[in-house]
Amino acid sequence: MAAKKATKTANVSISLYDGEFQIGFDCVGVMVCQFAMCSEMPIDGKEECFFKEYGSCRRPAAQQTTLERLINRLKRELKQLEEDSEA
Description:
With 87 residues, this protein is α+β, with helices and mostly antiparallel strands. The chain is 31% helix and 21% strand.
C-alpha cells in the first residue's frame, strides 16, 4: 500500500450563531499534515506535532492556509448559488 502524502491542512469548524463567531482548528495527524513538526524529522508517526494542543492545531501557517482554502471553497459555493438562482 502506498504511503499517504503529507498534503492536508488542519480541519476547521466555524460557527456564526446569534452574532457570535467561533473558529476551531483540529489536528489531522502528523503523517498527513503538510505543516507537522516533531523533534525528529522526517516524521515517522511516533511523536505528536509540537503545535498539537488538546487535539487542536495551533500552528499559524496551518491555520492561515486552511482559511485560504476555506475562502476559495466558499467563493465557489457562492458562485454556484448565484448560477442556480439565475436558472
